[in-house]
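SEVERITY: medium
COMPONENT: batch folding queue
REPORTER: lab tech (J.R.)

DESCRIPTION
The queue accepted two submissions in a row. Attaching both inputs and their returned structure tokens so the on-call engineer can compare them side by side.

ATTACHMENT 1
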Amino acid sequence: MINFTKMHGLGNDFIVINNLDGDVCLSVEEICQLADRRFGIGFDQLLMIESATSKDADFRYVIFNADGSEVSQCGNGARCFALYIQKKNLSYKNPLTVETNAGLLVLNINSDDTVKVDMGKPNFEPSKIPLNLNQVLSEYNIEGHMVGSLSIGNPHAILIQDEIYNIEDIASTIQSSELFPDGVNVGFMKVLNKSKIQLRVVERGVGETHACGSGACAAVIYGVRRGLLNSKVIVHLNGGDATVEFDGEKVYLTGPGKFVYEGSVNLRSGSS
């Protein structure tokens, strides 16, 4: 039996598994089984809490998409990760430093139980996104669509639209482009004013989610660099609001995380 906790950050939902003992090892097929919203638990991402391998970190933060693929970054999940550690008394430190495949994240739990995540520095170098082009540009023509692109631990393409529409078709076209060898999260941003945007994100390996923390960061970074946004922006997502701050070097994401329920599942029998 595997114990899990169901959580969400602005409707971007997760199951969190304590794997500090290192005895949980799930196959791609098992993750897909758990992610199925009709025959499993259902989630956008699975989050594993593991022992840190770096002396500079308190825990290791491991993330799997609903299709079983491992990814390096999830801002909404990071907030839930921090709150889980606090509620389960796994650490009394605040802030927490956690290691990911994209580097270290610093998680600060606020007095109102929101969490501020230091998401680090964005990378615009095409080879680091990765994007199969040789030159850093403010915009790229991807399959006939003008997008901004950057990595915030995972790859993002951002489109600015006066009205957000037809996102599944456009996202599918961009995600299937050979220019993004590892796939890409596609964000659709409507600028409401210099301090507010509306955003919808179609995530690789998941589809459209109610919220995407790293996608919110990528959109604000792109908007700031285009001169369209201030350094602090409220991002209206389908699941609620997050706040993103970009000082030109580092980006910070603040928002809530919520506990939904706890349970256990036997993968052999499929019962939960």
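ATTACHMENT 2
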Amino acid sequence: MAKRVTKYRAVFVDRDGTLIREKHYLHKPGQVRFIKGSIEALRELRRRGFKLVMITNQSGIGRGYYTIADMHNVHKHIQSVLKKNGAAFDKIYFCPHAPDARCKCRKPALGLVKKAARALSLILKKSFAIGDHVNDFILGQRMGGKGIMVLSGHGAHEHREKIKLKQISETPDKVVKNLPAAADWIIKCGAR
């Protein structure tokens, strides 16, 4: 008799401008400032049964501005704070490549999402992606789930310049102020 595998819903969260305040090429733990309410939002999503995955494009590595070790130190700090608050990520994935590298891991490519789905037994069509860039919500839609754009970080600018002016054809499933508002919407969707 085959063992039955439990499948989980997930929330894929962008790092800079979504979870923590935007800081140009952030690479030191001391530069991390959590956006108000973001830790509590993650804790509530976890409490509701969602797996939490951070997926972040870190082109500063590919451009030579900081090292993978620098980024890992930042992520260790983030995880430490989140763990103390019952909101740690189940997995953290990153793309170190510059935008022109044409890799399979840079959002909105699905390489890292597929890796997370295998590692955590995820149901992607019932999952969500949140971020302050167009590529973040497109990632959610490409995986078959929902994509949410937050207006924190670069979100207000990207929303105004790319979506409202119709520079791209895609639109987010939901536009919200920040990560706490995104979590509220996800919880309402999950209750349906």
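NOTES FROM REPORTER
The domain at 10-190 is CATH 3.40.50.1000 (Rossmann fold).
No errors were logged for either attachment.
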